[in-house]
Structure formats: C-alpha cells, structure tokens
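hey m, so remember when u said the tokens were messed up on ur end? i reran from scratch. heres the input so u can diff it against urs
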Amino acid sequence: MRVRPITDDELPDYISTSMRGYAKDKHVNGGIPREQADAEAARETELYFPGGRLTPGHAVLIAEDDNGERVGDLWMAPRTERQDVAFIYAIQVEPSARGNGYGRALMQEAAQWSRDNGFRTLALHVFGGNDIAINLYESLGFVTTDRMMKLDL
C-alpha cells in the first residue's frame, strides 16, 4: 500500500462524499433526524473545509494498492481543544478492498503521521455498532475514554 496526500483536484469529491457519509452516520448510528443530520454535517464540513479548501494543519491522505487503485483514505488533524492530540476525523476503506489489512495499515499510517508531527496522543470517534472498526482499534491498543448511550422510548 502507498499513501499520498490528496490532490487539489480530488478534494471537492472527497469533501462531498465525506459530508454525505457523515450525515448518514449521524442519522443511522447517532439517531439524529435526517434533516438535522444533513444540516449539522454541512455546517461542520464548512467549518473544517472553509470555502472547499483543506484547513491548514489538516491532512487528507489517499491509500492506493500496488496497482495504483484507491483503496481508502484518512483525514487527520490536531484536536481543536487539545493541540497535543492528533485526531482521526475520518478513515474509510473502499468496500471492495475491505478484509485485506488496509484499515490496519491506514491506522498505522495515522500513528506515524501523528508522531512525525509531534503529537503525543492519537484519538478518534467511532459510532456504537461499528464492531469491525471497534475491534480493529482495540487490537491496535486504543482504549475507550468516553461512552454515550441511549434508550429509545
């Protein structure tokens, strides 16, 4: 696997795709009504990609297999409220590439990026019910630091 920075030409599609996926996760996994999830995702997207540009200090990395095919991506940045913490805002592996170790390799890339940029801690958020991702993160040594739960009435 090879990892490279996203190009300016790829960024608009990445932003659009990420916003739609985030809104869907907020709705399906977060229990937020669809219209509210869409609005929150659009607001946060504009905050982190002002005017469709990558915020300074943020990095979007593209993972490619040995044939140059895109297999996933990773969005990293300093945590807004704690500058010593690198945060994984998004990580995804293409459905057709899953089960081949790319998620683990991207997580290892995230840790290396964090060390290279002087961070002492790497953090992320994962929605409940994403057991495959949770198992991967725990196998890499991540520990739960917070847990939100809900009961539908």
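this time it looks ok to me. The two ends are 46 Å apart (CA to CA). if urs says something different then somethings off w ur setup not the seq
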